[in-house]
Amino acid sequence: CSRAPGRRPASRGLAGEHCIAPVPLASALAGLLMTRGPAEARPLSGGGNDLSGIKQLVGALSAANPTAQEAAVVALRKLAVASAKDEEMIVQAGGIAELVKLLSTGNEVARAKSARMLWTLSSEERHRSAIGEVRGIVPLVTLLSEGNSKCRASAAGALRNMASDLALRATLAAVGGIPPLVSLLLSSTCEVTRVNSSGALWNITNSPDNHPAIVESGGIPALINSLSSINGEEQVNASGALWALVAESVERRTIIAEAGALRPMVALLTNFVHLEAQAHVLGALLSMTEGDFHLLRMITQTGGLRPLIDVLSSGSMEAQATALMILLNLAADAENKVDIAREGGIPPLVAKVSSETLNMKVDAAGTLASLALNSDNQIGITEVGGIPPLVAALSSESRKVQENASAALLHLADNQRNQLTIREEGGIEPLVAILTTGKGEAPENAAGALMSCALQKDNQKPIADAGGITSLIKLLVAGTWEARTNAAGALLNLTKDNPTNKILVAEYEGMRPLVVLIEEGGQLAQEKASGALRNLALDDEHNKALIADADGIPPLVGLLAAGSIAAQENAAGALQSLAGRFENISAIVKSGAIAPLIAALQSENLLTQEYAAGTLCILSTEVPNRVDIAKAGGITPLVQACVSGSMLVKAKGAGALRGLALDNAQNAISIVKEKGIPPLSKLLQSDSVEAQTHSAAALLNMSQGHAKTCEAIAQGGCVPLLVALLSKGEVEAQEHAAAVLWNLSAISKLQSTISSAKGIPALVKLLAGGSVLAKVNSAGALNNMSRGGKFRSAIMTAGGIPPLVALLSTESPEGQMNAVSAVLNISHTPQGRAAIRDADGIKAVVSLLTNGHGDTPGLAAGVLQSLANENAPNKSSILEAGGIKPLVNILLTSSPIPQENATGALRSLCTTPQGMKALVDAGGIKPMVTLLTEGIGGAPAKAAAVIWKLAESGKFRSQISKQGGIDSLVRLLGIGKGEAQENAFGALCNMALDSHNHVSIVQSGGLIPLLKLLATNKLDILQRASALVWSLSTTGNNRGPMVDQGCLQPLVALLSYEHADVQSNCAGTIMTLALKKENKAAIIQANSIGPLVEIIQPEEEYDDESDQGSLQPRVEGNMDAAQANAAGALMNLAFKFPKGQMAITAAGAIQPLSILLSSKYAETQCNAAAALLNLALGSPSNRASMAEAGVIPPLVTLVRDGSGDAQEHAAAALWNLAASGKNRALMTEAKAIKPLVNLLGAGNPTARAKAAGALQTLCHKNIDNKVAVAEAGAIPHLIALLQRGNAAAKETSAGALQSLATIPLNREAVADSGGIEPLIALLSKGSIVAQKNAAGALGNLADDAQNCSDIIQAGALEPLVALYTKEGSEVRDQACGALRVLAASDGCRNWRAVVDAGGGDALKITSQQGSPGK
Prior knowledge:
About 75% of the residues lie in helices and about 0% in strands. It has about 1400 residues and is an all-alpha fold. The chain has a two-stranded antiparallel ribbon with strand order 1-2. The protein is elongated, with a radius of gyration of 51 Å.
């Protein structure tokens, strides 16, 4: 019996702490005083550890100051741990209620310390009750989920203690404490928490009512996981809980085992350190081995035997006893019997038979009794000396010891050598003694053992000498039915060929008890008793008379008529012997023996026939008996001829039956009714070839298409004889026998009969070496046998694959059909596929694709489909055999099943590049495309799968498209269901990998079914469909048609879907659709702005204190991608589209866009910055709104820290925002100059240009900014951009230098940094804007005399004059201004140089301009 596991005592909550010395109350109060704030800093009374002082500490628990609360809890706990008296006073002072209150009201630290204090207090039963009374369980349970790690550990510890009380366990379960405990056990990394959680669950399992809740909360996996913990206490707790769970529920044992508990349990069996865990596991395993035979094997297969045997050898006494009980239960399984012996379990079991402990002796003997049912173990037990202790145990006073020991010897005696060993080890005498003195089942076991031992001639005399015969006869009279049966069996064996023992049986009056046993006993008893009487009557006239006098003849006759085969044999044999005494003949006839004797002539038992014929021979010597025998004949002439005629008559009678049954169902049924099958089956064994042939053919004709006659043939015992004929008969007989088995095998319930008769090896042998017709018929039978899967392995084991493969090449259409059908069935198993390949079957099957008759090519395609399924070697072999081309040819046929099989085969073969290429080279794409819309059954789905795979390769996608694949896939997507639709969708997804297919998909109407898919509620479909729609929208020519075909409404609706991936795809689609200017209005009219803005809204935060700062996701999935795409959609909608800008601004997008600038994802930053840039390019009000929304600081940050594109957009946004003087001030406050300057040297080319533009604008009419920009090191970078920047950068850098050069300090810096030459170079090579800005910059620089000289010397006059004199030049004014400044500088010393350079016209001044200076 399985015992309930023990319970872990309450924990004091001291895990992980040092011992705490006694703490004076004064010290505790002083510590508390130090924690109080000024308002609470009043004296505390109490100098000793008295109740009043403790009350003050308890009162401090409700103080307003959290620090005081924490200190009070600490002080109280120190007192409680140090002194039991103080602990009681804390409780008396109402401390428990305050501590419980603090669990809900205190801060994190106070809650943790309060939970720890309650953990300590709850170690006492009276305190647990007090905690329960103030409803402390609920807040403790709450802490399991909401508290910090210390809170959870302490709360779990307190609940662990609370769960040790029955009532509190119920409360704990009722308030939902089990799920969080299970969750903690699964997720916590804290060792203390896991120990306490597992301990609490262990205590909770003490109430079976809680078990369902533990299971429903996922407690089983959690507890199983804890079995592998490195913490011994956790292992103890988990194993104890699991023991409790399995002890109370048979069904739960299987659940726990199948959840993976056995392996860690077995591992704990080897743990001789934590013996308590080991004991728990043993208890659990004992429970699991009771009542569920499925688990017996699972435990063994998990490696449980070896540890159990080790425990049996070296564990504690209690552990040994439990291990022994487990092994006793495990030994009930036949395979376990073998495994226990193999793992070395027999020697310790034998040793335990001699144990001083009664229970161990009982269980050890019982286990050996069970193991001894295995023939190998019978030898193994004897070899390790198992018989002597078992013999000794027979003398035990314990009934159970006697029963088990005698049962073990009973089973051991099935082995011939053991029969002698039992005698040699002195077993005969105690076995005989138990016959009359034994208890319970011991006498019947002993009689059974003696029955087996008596089979040995050398044992018969010792048994008799020990008084065995008289004891057996006594047992015949007074024993149980089983004992009487075994006693009769023992007398049967003792009297065989032993005249002395027969005399003894007669002397001890054994005849009548044997007769009574025939009259009253069961089948086996009748067989044994009649056998004994048969032996006693043989050649013994005295015994013949005694049997008759004991009224033995009537029951023997009755047994002949209605007994079992063995009983009939014995009865017929006994009657033959009894009939040898003349006085008995009359009694035999009067007992009605003639009819059963005639019937016995047709018995399947040859000896019964012999004895019956012999008896009738004797009876027929009397005239009256001849008449009676004749009158008793009720068998039709033909069947009688088959039974009693000569061999020739039998053959002719069988031949006539053969003809009668041919194509005539009624005749076949009549033959069955007239019991014609037994004689026909007998003739199958005849030495006459003709008899064999005709009887087999008769059975064949009877079996043709008639299920009932087939069953009758099988029930008549013909199957073994037919199987024998397959190898022993002549050619025609073999052909007929194989054909009969072919017909019988068509009935599934008869297949086991054929298999049991070893029909499969015989059929395989005939298939390999028989005639053509025999091979065809054998293949037909094997095909039927292989259909259900049950006998496929047997066919392969018998070597059936090679001859089946060989038959594929036969000229016989029926042979091909049978062989390929069988191969197809066998190919459904991995072993079968390997065997077919090894037999070179792939080439033969491939050949059948083109050379097969009738439907065989389609079946061959099915074989290849199965062979190629997830089997790389087979795929390679099929390709090498040239299987692709003929499979493609089958696709062109109009037969649905071959098409589907061929398509399935090609589907598997196309998982490799070689397979795909071969399919395409064979022209397979076109028929595959055709099957998409014209195929029947599963062909379209499989064809779509092939195209899906092919479309992974770009070089095949174009061919699929050329063959009309996109149109067909779109159609299948629209009309297909299930796998067909899924595969078509997958293929279109791959086809869309080529952008040039996008237009074709849309033009083929693919958007409509895709939009229907967007209406589904299945997340995976929505994700993939929305992604494909997005992909299609990336092609510009699709953007208009997609909007026209109504894609906006479902896309906008899905912007609010509950998964971010779907939102992301839809936002991405809108983003790309908005690239087409004409779509923008429609997108806005579809009310897309609001959902897009909603997506970019920041995540909301939790309110609870335990998760401050953590984000609450609105939906599942990648929200960052969704926000990036939504921002991108807004970006495109705002680009040069005032209506879009207005709608976006009105929807409140600026604020969330500004927040996205701080995203950790570059794409999000970039799109948000670009969106803000586009809004800034709109109305001044947008720029003002953006500034008010605070976008400038994050834009500055983005310039400093963002990616290249993000920096570019941020700099451009700042450039546009800087158009406002107010904004320039804000940018200065945000310290934008330095990041912009840094960007000049580190950004991408466009970003540098934008940064220069922003700096130029910042310097507008702002001397301070000009100084700051220069001081930030901008000038060298700007000059570098003049030389190496792109066109835009040259324009903006020249403009920035123009602005900076308006102050003297910067003019000198520009010149010193080498800025003059690049500016001059720009006059000739730059854009118009660059030339204007360069001329302006040179004009400003020329205000410095030295610069003026340097500019002229550097050759500026010629390009300036050229720009000035060029007609229609937009740079004329700037060039003129620069020339004038150069001419006027340094007292007009350069006037002549300007004039000489051709710039005189630029120096002319009208009267309105005044007179020129000197």
